[in-house]
Design goal:
This protein is α/β, with parallel strands linked by helices. It has a single domain, classed as Glutaconate Coenzyme A-transferase, CATH 3.40.1080. It contains six helices and 15 strands. The strands form three sheets. It has a ten-stranded mixed sheet with strand order 4-3-2-1-5-10-12-13-14-15. Helix 1 packs across helix 2 and helix 2 packs across helix 6. It is globular.
Length: 276
């Protein structure tokens, strides 16, 4: 990946997943997914809506110049890009999809009910993820004896059980981050969501700087589905703390096209935040 960074590739991968008119929200870590949303808005999805935390804002930056990618979705400087603003506590009124699972049915008349909060896609980071797709943002170790303290759950359980497509992303790929069992669960994985019949269905992917895991439809365990360019299966296995199972065919993620990379660098990430 000499021509681009893994952060740039991750932003491009997420951008490709976004469809026009999608409503999107995320956890507090912002740079990669915000870049993905901006890239999508400026290339193929001008009508997506981006929901951010803190003094909660609904943003569309398709025609807006953003000086630098924001570091967190809870920063109040994001208000300058807002189409609407409401207090964070008000989001608790809007967590559930209108009509529950019926919201997702093709041609559902519920699709136009809630323009204010509900999201189609949710991007969430973590300090740990396990083979079931559970993520941990609480801390490593035991209660009262943390070896590392995270930011906490920040209410993402409510979002996780009601959003159809959630994407877990980690900013490092090693045995400390990708574990057999997370120390705490802040975002439920595929197995928990299926067993409890949450209509969100759990995460679609776990994305790391090396690869993309999807989930076996029968066992609900993570499996290696796609490699980032230049990464090998052996490399992933050597740096993962659970047994790496693989899809029948492992794809290689297409690198950013020249058009995608040019738009990312000249219109979205002008200061090169994702290049470092």
């Amino acid at each position: 990946m000499s021509d681009y960074s893994w952060k740039e590739l991750m932003a491009v991968v997420f951008s490709r997943e976004i469809k026009d008119t999608d409503k999107i929200t995320s956890g507090a870590h912002t740079e990669i997914f915000f870049a993905a949303c901006m890239l999508a808005q400026k290339t193929h999805a001008p009508n997506l809506k981006l929901q951010l935390g803190g003094g909660v804002t609904l943003c569309n930056v398709g025609d807006v110049e953003v000086s630098e990618l924001p570091k967190t979705s809870t920063g109040y400087e994001l208000l300058r890009y807002a189409e609407s603003v409401h207090d964070h506590a008000d989001t608790f009124l809007f967590y559930g999809a209108p009509g529950g699972a019926k919201y997702y049915k093709e041609g559902s008349d519920l699709r136009d009910v809630n323009h204010f909060w509900f999201a189609d896609k949710f991007f969430v980071g973590g300090i740990q993820a396990d083979k079931w797709g559970n993520t941990n943002m609480i801390g490593m170790g035991k209660p009262g004896k943390f070896t590392f303290r995270g930011p906490g759950t920040i209410g993402i359980n409510d979002i996780a059980i009601g959003v159809r497509d959630t994407y877990v992303f980690l900013t490092a790929h090693d045995k400390r981050r990708l574990v057999e069992k997370v120390d705490f669960i802040s975002h439920p994985g595929k197995k928990i969501c299926r067993e409890n019949e949450y209509y969100g269905g759990g995460p679609k992917w776990i994305v790391t700087p090396k690869c993309i895991f999807d989930f076996d439809p029968d066992t609900l365990e993570a499996r290696l589905a796609m490699l980032f360019p230049g990464v090998t299966v052996d490399d992933v296995k050597a740096n993962t703390g659970f047994e790496v199972k693989t899809a029948k065919k492992i794809e290689t993620v297409p690198p950013p096209s020249r058009e995608e990379l040019d738009a990312l660098r000249t219109e979205v990430d002008k200061t090169g935040v994702l290049r470092h």
